[in-house]
Protein backbone atom coordinates (compact mmCIF):
# COMPACT_ATOMS: atom_id res chain seq x y z
CA UNK A 1 0.00 0.00 0.00
CA UNK A 2 1.14 3.52 -0.67
CA UNK A 3 1.28 6.29 1.90
CA UNK A 4 -1.81 7.85 0.34
CA UNK A 5 -3.78 4.61 0.49
CA UNK A 6 -2.71 4.17 4.11
CA UNK A 7 -3.88 7.69 4.98
CA UNK A 8 -7.22 7.15 3.20
CA UNK A 9 -7.70 3.93 5.19
CA UNK A 10 -6.79 5.69 8.42
CA UNK A 11 -9.22 8.54 7.71
CA UNK A 12 -12.11 6.17 7.03
CA UNK A 13 -11.29 4.00 10.05
CA UNK A 14 -11.01 7.05 12.29
CA UNK A 15 -14.26 8.52 10.97
CA UNK A 16 -16.00 5.32 12.04
CA UNK A 17 -14.28 5.19 15.45
CA UNK A 18 -14.18 8.83 16.56
CA UNK A 19 -14.74 8.00 20.21
CA UNK A 20 -11.37 6.22 20.33
CA UNK A 21 -9.42 9.31 19.26
CA UNK A 22 -8.29 12.10 21.54
CA UNK A 23 -8.61 15.72 20.41
CA UNK A 24 -4.87 15.72 19.75
CA UNK A 25 -5.15 12.59 17.62
CA UNK A 26 -8.05 14.10 15.68
CA UNK A 27 -6.11 17.32 15.13
CA UNK A 28 -3.04 15.44 13.93
CA UNK A 29 -5.14 13.41 11.51
CA UNK A 30 -6.85 16.53 10.15
CA UNK A 31 -3.50 18.27 9.73
CA UNK A 32 -2.00 15.29 7.91
CA UNK A 33 -5.01 15.06 5.63
CA UNK A 34 -5.06 18.76 4.76
CA UNK A 35 -1.31 18.81 4.07
CA UNK A 36 -1.51 15.71 1.86
CA UNK A 37 -4.52 17.05 -0.10
CA UNK A 38 -2.68 20.32 -0.66
CA UNK A 39 0.51 18.53 -1.75
CA UNK A 40 -1.34 16.23 -4.12
CA UNK A 41 -3.20 19.15 -5.69
CA UNK A 42 0.13 20.67 -6.58
CA UNK A 43 1.46 17.38 -7.94
CA UNK A 44 -1.65 16.71 -9.99
CA UNK A 45 -1.67 20.27 -11.37
CA UNK A 46 -5.28 20.70 -10.27
CA UNK A 47 -4.75 23.51 -7.79
CA UNK A 48 -8.01 24.71 -6.34
CA UNK A 49 -9.91 21.51 -7.10
CA UNK A 50 -10.13 20.56 -3.44
CA UNK A 51 -9.26 23.94 -1.93
CA UNK A 52 -12.51 24.00 0.03
CA UNK A 53 -11.73 20.67 1.69
CA UNK A 54 -8.29 21.89 2.81
CA UNK A 55 -9.86 25.01 4.31
CA UNK A 56 -12.56 22.96 6.05
CA UNK A 57 -10.02 20.57 7.53
CA UNK A 58 -7.89 23.42 8.82
CA UNK A 59 -10.90 25.24 10.30
CA UNK A 60 -12.16 22.12 12.02
CA UNK A 61 -8.70 21.39 13.39
CA UNK A 62 -8.68 24.80 15.04
CA UNK A 63 -12.14 24.42 16.61
CA UNK A 64 -11.76 20.86 17.91
CA UNK A 65 -11.04 21.56 21.55
CA UNK A 66 -13.48 24.44 21.76
CA UNK A 67 -16.53 22.23 21.42
CA UNK A 68 -17.83 23.98 18.32
CA UNK A 69 -17.86 20.87 16.15
CA UNK A 70 -19.99 17.78 16.44
CA UNK A 71 -18.77 14.25 15.83
CA UNK A 72 -21.08 14.10 12.81
CA UNK A 73 -19.41 17.16 11.28
CA UNK A 74 -15.97 15.78 12.00
CA UNK A 75 -16.90 12.40 10.56
CA UNK A 76 -18.24 14.01 7.37
CA UNK A 77 -15.06 16.05 6.93
CA UNK A 78 -12.77 13.07 7.49
CA UNK A 79 -14.70 11.13 4.85
CA UNK A 80 -14.57 14.13 2.47
CA UNK A 81 -10.82 14.26 2.94
CA UNK A 82 -10.53 10.53 2.25
CA UNK A 83 -12.56 10.97 -0.93
CA UNK A 84 -10.48 13.92 -2.07
CA UNK A 85 -7.23 12.04 -1.47
CA UNK A 86 -8.55 9.05 -3.36
CA UNK A 87 -9.59 11.16 -6.35
CA UNK A 88 -6.27 13.03 -6.42
CA UNK A 89 -4.37 9.76 -6.19
CA UNK A 90 -6.34 8.41 -9.16
CA UNK A 91 -5.69 11.61 -11.14
CA UNK A 92 -1.95 11.40 -10.50
CA UNK A 93 -1.84 7.69 -11.40
CA UNK A 94 -3.73 8.35 -14.63
CA UNK A 95 -1.24 11.04 -15.65
CA UNK A 96 1.74 8.83 -15.00
CA UNK A 97 0.27 5.84 -16.89
Describe what you observe in this structure.
- This protein has one domain (3-96).
- The two termini are 18 Å apart.
- Helix 1 runs antiparallel to helix 2.
- It is built from four helices and no strands.
- The mean pLDDT is 79.
- The relative contact order is 0.20.
- The chain is mainly alpha-helical.
- The longest helix is centred in the C-terminal third of the chain and has 26 residues, at 71-96.
Short description:
With 97 residues, the chain is mainly α.
Layout of helices and strands:
Elements: H1 3-16, H2 23-44, H3 51-63, H4 71-96
Order of helices and strands: HHHH
Low-confidence stretches: none
Largest sheet: none
- Oligomeric status of the shown chains? single chain
Q: Tell me roughly what share of residues is in helical segments.
A: over 70%
* SSE-based structural type: mainly alpha
Q: Calculate the mean pLDDT score and round it.
A: 79
First-to-last CA distance? 18 Å
Radius of gyration: 13 Å
Helix count? 4
Number of domains: 1
The backbone outline, from C-alpha atoms, is: elongated
The count of DSSP E runs of length 2 or more, i.e. the number of strands, is 0
Query: What share of residues are in beta strands?
Result: under 5%
What labels would you give this structure?
97 residues, mainly alpha
Amino acid sequence: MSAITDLVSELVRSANELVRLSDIGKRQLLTSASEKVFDLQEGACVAGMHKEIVGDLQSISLTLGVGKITNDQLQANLLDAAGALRMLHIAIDARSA
